[in-house]
Every structure is written in structure tokens, then in C-alpha cells.
Amino acid sequence: MPALGWRPSDFWSASLVEFFVAIEGHAEMNGADKASDGVDPDEYEALKRRYG
């Protein structure tokens, strides 16, 4: 997996937990935000008024 810098053998020998932990760590290192709580109610209403 080029994005993680893993060799194919690293990928295929990893468990699902190891894989997802690596993906989360990679995303965090590269500035990905944590999951948001979604759109706040005021913003939602403004979007509904604007776009129907």
C-alpha cells in the first residue's frame, strides 16, 4: 500500500485491526479532522432555506 508505505506482504499479513489503526494514524498525521457531530440545527435550517 503506497499511501501507508507498506509492502504487499505487510498488508496481507496485517489483521483488520492493524490495518484500520494504521489508516487512522495515517489520516491523523496528515491533518484529517476527527469525525464531526454533523451540521448544527441553525446551519441545517439555513441550508434548507437556500436549497429547498
Helix content: 55-70%
- Number of separate strands: 0
- In quaternary terms, these chains amount to single chain
Span between termini: 42 Å
What are the secondary-structure elements, in order, as H or E? HHH
Shape: rod-shaped
Q: Structural class of the secondary elements?
A: mainly alpha
Amount of beta strand: under 5%
Low-confidence stretches: none
Mean pLDDT across all residues, rounded? 88
Largest sheet: none
**Helix tally?**
3
Kindly provide the radius of gyration, computed on alpha-carbon positions and rounded to a whole number of angstroms.
18 Å
Short description:
By secondary structure, the chain is mainly α. It has helices spanning 8-13, 16-29, 41-51.
Q: What does the model show?
A:
There is one protein chain. The chain is mainly alpha-helical. Helix content is about 60%, strand content about 0%. It has 3 helices and no strands. The longest helix has 14 residues, at about 15-30. The N and C termini lie far apart (about 40 Å). The mean pLDDT is about 90.
